[in-house]
Design a protein that fits this description.
139 residues; mainly alpha; 70% helix
Length: 139
Amino acid sequence: MIPTLAGRVQTRLFVLATVGAVLTALITPLLPMSFGDAYLVLLAVALVGVGWELLYHLLMQFRWDKDWPTMFGLVTAVPEGLVMWVLLDAGLVPGVQGPLSWWAFATMFAVVWLGQWLFLNGPMRVLFVKWRLRGGRLL
């Protein structure tokens, strides 16, 4: 079943709050950023991600099956990461203390993005079978 817009938003928020939070906790001690900054970045990615889902929903209306190929889900990390970095670099993410180094952000973003993409395309399909049958909605 093709995930609905509400299902994609719920899934994005759920996976960021679970898999993303765990991966952020694991990677942050290796990076020159505080846990507070790391979790503010994760929260900003979640909030901006809701806007991305609206844009993706609009773009999917031009596809005959109204869905993305799996690889598109991985490649969308590039524009999302770039926009997030621009927002951080411009100081538009409230609460983040001082400038973050680009490589620390890129490392954290890549680890979290790849981790959640792998979870969505593997264990999520096995652990939450009904998730697939309800258009991606968790509730």
